[in-house]
Write a structure and sequence with these properties.
single chain; seven-stranded mixed beta sheet; globular; mainly beta
Length: 131
Amino acid sequence: EVQLVESGGGLVQAGGSLNLSCATSGFIFENLAIGWYRQAPGKEREGVSWFSSSDGSSSYIDSVKGRFTVSNDKAKNTVYLQMNILKPEDTAVYYCAVLLHYVGSANMFLESHDVDEYDYWGQGTQVTVTS
């Protein structure tokens, strides 16, 4: 059974940090892409960051570049999203999603991405940043 389980969300003051985890199971952690998305109340789900296992690349949208960092622990089949200098506008439910059988750069997702293209999604974790 494929599972993606996010954790690490919480309540933090502006300027603070959180480290989200996306623990995966049920598939081989090779040739895949992990996308981190977020959805704020009343807004569409927004792609934030991507990781590609084939070349180890990562990519970020402009609003989080320099503040968020994606990393992975292949031994644990887990991808992390380290979020620093958090702002109130980062408040949202954060999701990870996996696109299996992907070989390519994470930068490709900055050009085009579709929430419907992913094979599996996690349940989400709430991040709330207070001012």
